[in-house]
Amino acid sequence: MRILVGWCPDWSVVAALGEAGLPPLAPAAVLSANRVEVCNASARAEGVRRGQRRRDAQARCPELALLGANPDRDARAFEPVLATVEELRPGVAALRPGLLAVRAPGRFFGGEEHAAAILAETLVDAGVRDCRFGVADDLFTAEQAARMAPTQEARVVRAGGSAAFLRDLPLEVLTTIPDLPQASELVSLLRRLGLDTLGEFAALPLEAITQRLGRPGVEVWRRVRGEDATQSAGVSERTPPPDLVAEVAFEPPLDSVEAVCFSTRTTAERFLAELASRHLVATEVRVEAEYDGADGPGISSRTWLHPRCFSSRDLIDRVHWQLQAHTSGSGLRSRRGIDGGAVRAPIERVRFVPETVEPAHAHAQGLWGGGGDDQVERGVARVQAMVGFEAVVRPVLQGGRSPSARQAAVPWGERATTSTPREQPWPGQIPGPAPVRVFARPIPAEIHGDDGRPVAVSARGAVTGIPARLRIDTGSWQPVAAWAGPWPVDEQWWGAASSSAGPAARFQMVGVDGRAWLAVCRAGTWLIEAGYD
Amino acid sequence: MQGSPATLGVAEESSRADQRPRRETGQKLDRDLDESAGAGRGVGRAVPLPMHPALAGLVPLRAGGVLAVDSAALALALVAGVSRAGEWIAVAGWPDLGAQAAADLGIALDRTIWVPHIAGEHWLEVTAALVDVVRMLVLVPPRGARGTSIIDARTAGVVEARLRSRGAALVVWGDWPRCGLRASLEDSRWSGPDDGLGRLQRRHATLVVRRSAGQAVRADLQFADDVALRRVGPEPSAVATGGVHGSVGAADLPRVAAR
After folding, report:
1. Does B199 map to a domain?
2. What is the pTM for the complete model shown?
3. Which of B24, B71, B228 sits opposite A369 (nearest CB)?
4. DSSP alpha helix (H) spans, A278-368
5. Exposed e or buried b for every residue in A169-193, given b needs 16+ CB within 10 A?
6. Which of B102, B190, B198 lies nearest to residue A395, judging by beta carbons?
7. Coil, helix or strand at residue B194
8. Interface check A372 vs B, CB under 8 A
9. Same fold, A1-9+74-241 and A246-374
10. CATH class as words, domain A1-9+74-241
């Protein structure tokens, strides 16, 4: 069986440049741990090399675009390339991002050179300028052939000619084998033994290899002899991912949320049935609604999570919430810029895109119903239908200095995305028992000293008077029984003027009624942040 | 409730009860299972609820009951026992819940449903839907325009009937019409702050549980930062006082929550 390998050199750089929106020929390097991992030809022309430190690379080429390493991005960007090749020749194996293998097409395209030329042409049309192909009997030889081919061309090793082709290659090509972590040590050892080419290595007897290098060495030895039968047979062809997206178009467009939900019901059921036929359930679904407004067509898109898995009724609920939030403009707040914009125009199309699917058996119901949690999800869905998606929340603890910064409310069903780790020490936080009441919006208060004047905190953190009486909001004055503090903090002084920026001092105040409060004095005004009721 | 089972024992019973379908089976089967299992979350059955160890034996709150409290810390402590036992709880109408304090008392936040705001027209539906799924619910009742209670005896009766049929209990931080069981923290004193030095450390308070019939029960409690809540002093004493009515007046209610 003949193998065709397609190679896109420096794929990490190509993918990163494409994502960053930079021109594809700009000098660029992908850095990992402050060292150049991959760089492209324009950067190499300026003297940038693999393994260089960031500073050295920048010194060689000041206009070098420095990009972060991200294997997920590379694989994601390689997916369209795989799909393009798959259209011509099914049974594509993705070896790693930038490298693919396929059984070499024989007579259908009129020979292997023609097949490679057609593939190259198709990929260049798809926007992949630098692609090279190699055809050989086994995978290792085909990859080396592809690496030696000029841009957009192919190098064909004739059948049975693998050993002859590999004979003159330097030992360094062994370091390109991904599943051989000790390759550089092996090359170094062979160099010290006086070997220079793969041919010399291949000429060694098998017993010597077995004694000196063991089983991994024998595998490499077989490869460089072109005898790697397991590799050629073991190209794991990928199955094209099924298209699970379901959509429904409305003609004429619908302008009522209820009508859209009613008409989407069968599509939602079809969407879930398609998943169920593959023994999958959806736990994260993106709902897209296309509309044609006065200012041009647009898409409202939002990703919805489900704590368990979506039923068709849940999906319809999500469509309802998403469209209602957009039509009314109030109700649900838009969070984190997920919303694609207000829908004030008739809806033309609704699409369900499965973002995360899981095997159905992980979510199967028990023999006697799903237990307590199942009922809780249903009950919460009922409450959400009444008061809105984001009105039912889950309390979550996070890091911070003030009590209100140390907790967050996450809408039910969404993942908690805390940017502030709780494990950090957070100097300046208030010791003692945690307050039972934490006001999201602090309550204004007044605190006067025993001389009748308002108490403040000076710029150096000194208290100007002894707190004697306090008044919360518009309540009545009451004497202060005890107080503690101040705990000075100066947060976010670098940022824009916000309510929590600037120097402040926190106090614990106990009224004569036995209630304690956490008060903060910021720029002479007092606020009650929490209560120890 | 004197001599109530230890918390561990109740936890075992409730977990056993959870493995059964609660409503799908008929009442007869449910009753049979109740009799065979000894106890459980029966329909219309007044089962003692697991309580925080410091409150065990003090508060005669049973499944299907309503308890009005005047302190936020007490409301959280009362539902902590159920949450420790692995059941779900909910907090409704309480926008300024202190999550850290709740966690310190032993409430599992990942089994807590929090509906911070319940609007005036929705509160009954939301409360009923939550009662369906949780074992205990903390409710801060919504207020009317002038801070008056909008809950009348009829709607309260609807909620109480739902509580009894579901075997859940309700802790109301605020006022509840014709409530037969009230708990309050009296004589609250903080120790620790010393006119600028020190910090809040411990809070001593007397828990007073009043029933419409019978004597009030008093016990000394201590809230501290090392152990969130513990009982101090002598064993609870029953003190003859008047009835419940008028003991928790509108003046004691959380004023800021009504804003």
Report:
1. yes
2. 0.61
3. B24
4. 312-328
5. bebebbeeeeebeebeebbeebeee
6. B102
7. strand
8. yes
9. no
10. alpha beta
> Do the domain assignments include residue B248?
yes
> A291 touching B, CB under 8 A?
no
Interface test with B, best of A383, A390, A447, A521 (most B CBs within 10 A): A383
Question: Between the CA atoms of A251, A255, A257 and A261, what dihedral angle is there, to the nearest 10 degrees?
Answer: 0
Q: Does domain A246-374 have CATH number 3.30.1490.100?
A: yes
Q: Is the ipTM value over 0.90, yes or no? A: no
pLDDT tens per residue, range B188-207 = 888 888 777 888 888 999 99
Task: Pinpoint the alpha helices (H) of chain B.
Answer: 7-18, 27-37, 72-84, 99-104, 123-133, 153-166
Give the DSSP letter string of A383-399.
Answer: HHHHH-GGGSEEEEE--
- Smallest Cβ distance to B256: which of A376, A432, A443? A443
pLDDT in tens, A147-202: 889 888 888 988 888 888 888 888 888 887 766 777 788 888 888 988 888 888 88
Of B73, B100, B259, the CB nearest to A533: B73
Q: For residue B110, what is the domain's CATH number? A: 3.40.50.300
Q: Compare all CA atoms of chain A with the CA of B192 and give the residue at the minimum distance.
A: A484
> Which residue segment(s) compose the domain that B134 sits in?
46-259
Neighboring chain A residues of B203 at a CB cutoff of 8 Å: 433, 516, 532
Contacts of B205 in chain A (CB under 8 A): 514
pLDDT tens per residue across span A494-521 = 776 666 677 889 999 998 888 899 999 9
